[in-house]
Amino acid sequence: MGALDEEHFDVELENGMKLGCLELGLEGEPETVAIEDAVKVLLEGLGEDVNREGLKKTPLRVAKALREGTRGYKQKVKDIVQGALFPEVGLDNEVGQAGGAGGLVVVRDLDHFSYCESCLLPFQVKCHVGYVPSGQRVVGLSKLSRVADIFAKRLQEPQRLADEVCLALHYGIKPAGVAVVLQCLHIHFPNLETAFLDPNHQGWVKILVSAGSGVFENENSDVWVDFLGLLKFRGINVEKIQTRDPIKSWCPSCSSSGAKISSELAPANPGMVSAVASILRSLGEDPSRKELVETPSHFVKWLMNFQNTNLEMKLNGFVFGKTDPHKTNGEASCNKKHIHSELNLSFWSQCEHHLLPFHGVVHIGYFRPEGLNPIGKSLLQSIVHFYGFKLQVQERLTRQIAETVSSILGDVMVVVEASHTCMISRGIEKFGSSTATIAVLGQFSNDPAARAIFLQSIPNITTSGV
Amino acid sequence: MGALDEEHFDVELENGMKLGCLELGLEGEPETVAIEDAVKVLLEGLGEDVNREGLKKTPLRVAKALREGTRGYKQKVKDIVQGALFPEVGLDNEVGQAGGAGGLVVVRDLDHFSYCESCLLPFQVKCHVGYVPSGQRVVGLSKLSRVADIFAKRLQEPQRLADEVCLALHYGIKPAGVAVVLQCLHIHFPNLETAFLDPNHQGWVKILVSAGSGVFENENSDVWVDFLGLLKFRGINVEKIQTRDPIKSWCPSCSSSGAKISSELAPANPGMVSAVASILRSLGEDPSRKELVETPSHFVKWLMNFQNTNLEMKLNGFVFGKTDPHKTNGEASCNKKHIHSELNLSFWSQCEHHLLPFHGVVHIGYFRPEGLNPIGKSLLQSIVHFYGFKLQVQERLTRQIAETVSSILGDVMVVVEASHTCMISRGIEKFGSSTATIAVLGQFSNDPAARAIFLQSIPNITTSGV
Fold first, then answer.
1. B345 φ, ψ (degrees, to nearest 5)
2. Is A417:A434 a contact under the CB 8 Å cutoff?
3. What is the pLDDT of residues B268-290, one digit of tens each?
4. What residues in A contact B442, CB-CB < 8 Å?
5. Distance from A267 to chain B by nearest Cα, in Å?
6. Which of B1, B354, B398 to mutate to test the interface with A (most CBs of A within 10 A)?
7. Angle of helix B222-232 versus helix A448-456 axis, rounded to 10
8. Does the pLDDT of residue B460 top 70, yes or no?
């Protein structure tokens, strides 16, 4: 096992202090307690037992995550930029532009997250910032990220976020100009019906926005061309920058069906809607601000997708059909039976520890007796959605799908691949991470060769970037 | 400019609090002050004026970064894992493995950084963790990352880091087994001589290590095959896992030339070496621990690459040679002159704000009169190294290279692309970010078409991943 034995390790455990940076002392504050109370109302509205083990600490976790994730309301740009402006000589303007007088500075690929003001779900932001120094001074590079973070850690909308970061840097650094490009990624907003109907439903909504000040005010200026040229080196495609449309929101909660549903749902769940409004107040926001008026009902609409139901799945009476000899896709032989792989069944779920979405794909492998057709993909997709649209943990989701599929098909193997919003939108902020879980039943559990055959049938996944 | 005007913004600035998470209150503590004093000794040893503007706060910045970056010494695994173990039923072992009883759980691509115990420079760690739950319980996914962080935030060596994370999770979660794979990336250790001699000097040293406990103790077990299969989906090539060699260090400071130099340097800089030893003590380490004995001299050796020198560059008497009509590589026409691009000149430098390396490539474009040969690449590379091997900021480096090249070649454009260690190894931890700076002289400053031609000649850069 390496250099440490258990005894050494126990000694090490005693030599400790609290988590420092991760504990902001939010616990027990009135705003935190108010959010906890509101989250309990939401959990009860979902038909959940707020005292069950997995949910006991959920209200506190949600409250801390929301308060940490909106701490930007209480931060000052001046505190960050002051003391990080450094004298740096440049060139006489007739000679050229460089250093502290005109030399473009660009920092790319700064990962942030923000909360969508339309639906209260976190969204990912890849931030690219450029500025042209003037006055013979430059700013410490990390400050570009820290200032962006102040505005990301609020309830936001991509274009306003870009504008605010741009303006804050402009007044903070007083350069010749600032340019901001944001690539934003918002989880899609399925509801049970559309998800079941549309198997090709996309997981993410993407948007690219920009803002410019000073020499960047004119989007057709040469300095924009230089800036975009430097983004292209990093593979950042800037051809699709959105022009600002203040009326149409990018958030999927604001689609026509969403707007309809909000008015349908609101009367049905007034307690939940008021609970979300009280959360907004506890975060220091004004729920009557026009961009926030619909937010509580949008969030409740999203949440109700994951309502606790006692719906029984009717899986009895399923029979294998006869096989079509020409159809051998997704199959591999093993011990005279075929391993059939049903890949990339999409799912949405809601992490019960943080009330945050996790989302990804399910791969199912099973042994198919020769001469019989594989089971229909749509039935498997329905099973996946049935267990996905709940308050869940990925480990349980994996087991439940495996057990249910096994009740029809016998020996099965299930792999669930997911991105967890809770891994990016809380303290750890691990943007590239992804989680995989496995369940194996019957022959798969003691036949490594069968497992390997199934795993090899799963295509490589490229990181879900912006 | 968008939704905010300056007045609105100023009001917003007043409504603030301190940075919260980013301010750990380390300022003024005896350990911090002791490190500040030691850093002043190092700066003086480099021939620097510790009171010049760019360096005034460097001792405090270095002290805070080092103490934050080694806070793992004071953290407890129990504090993190306790309260994050959740009951989760599994399956009877005869039926299969799933959920809280045997279903493999894998979290991939967790970005961390650590400090190399051989040279005190930060290195990047991409961490992949798997565990097989037992006892009908699972751990919150983020805890795998938080526990890894406790051991990463120390002076480390990749294999020990993997072993410690593995063991800590094993005793913390009490699962059937834990597997850890780390991909580590250490900046290469040039010294002035080898850098000048070897233009193809690689920027990074890479290593892949693993550790396993319980069912993962045997590296040839089937469960390792499952785990590695799930890493492959993410493009993680695990074929090069190192077997442990406790004698040979991965750190470039421990190469044979490094060992030689350390004994040469130590007598010359006893004050600097003792200063680094005192930093180790202030971090809670024992400088006489055998892995740390050479660390102060290694760090001083690295640092001395960036000594302040008054070396004059002799560039007079340079003349263009006649052109070879068959050689037109790296050229593009513009206004009857050719724009010649000299691309990917590597550089190392040391950020004067944080005493941390930044490293990357320089691209130089200039107008070459028709019929004349381009200037030799080795001269340009020498100019780049001359300005790189100093305490620097990227903006100044860019300007200095541009001014010097311009004194020989007239109108020039310089692009510097860099990764800054200070962007990952302090609070902001922005792992994927990269910085570009531009300087333009003469015709390039008022000819956007010439700039565009030069920028287009620069090849796209793939992110420097592990």
1. -80, 115
2. yes
3. 689 999 999 999 999 999 999 99
4. 95-96
5. 33
6. B1
7. 0
8. yes
Contact B395 A133 (CB under 8 A): yes
Q: Which domains does chain B have, with CATH numbers?
A: 29-69+255-285 (no CATH), 70-247 (3.30.1130.10), 332-457 (3.30.1130.10)
The beta strand positions in A119-203, using DSSP E, are: 122-132, 137-139, 155-156, 177-187
Judged by DSSP in three states, A318 sits in: coil
Nearest to A20 among B24, B57, B444 (CB): B24
- CB-based contacts of B235, cutoff 8 Å, min separation 6: A460, A462
The 3-state DSSP class for residue A414 equals strand
- Give the span between the Cα atoms of B432 and B75, in whole angstroms: 27
Task: Please give the helix or strand (H or E) that residue B344 lies within, else none.
Answer: strand B337-351
Give the per-residue pLDDT at B282: 96
- Please give the model's pTM, rounded to 2 decimal places: 0.89
Q: Which two tokens stand for residue B381?
A: 């590379």
Distance of CA B402 to the CA centre of its chain: 25
Residue type, B233: F
Which residue do the tokens 């400053």 mark? B445
Instruction: For residues A434 and A420, give the distance between their C-alpha atoms in angstroms, rounded to a whole number.
Output: 7
Alpha-carbon Rg for chain A in angstroms: 26
Cβ contact (<8 Å) for B24 and A24? Answer: no
DSSP code, position A410: S
Residue partners of B124: CB distance under 8 A and separation at least 6 = B111, B112, B113, B184, B185, B424, B431, B466
- Distance between CA atoms of residues A213 and A194, nearest Å: 42
Q: What is the pLDDT of residues B103-147, one digit of tens each?
A: 999 999 999 999 999 999 999 999 999 999 999 999 999 999 999
Q: Please report the number of interchain residue pairs, chain A to chain B, with beta-carbon separation below 8 angstroms.
A: 386
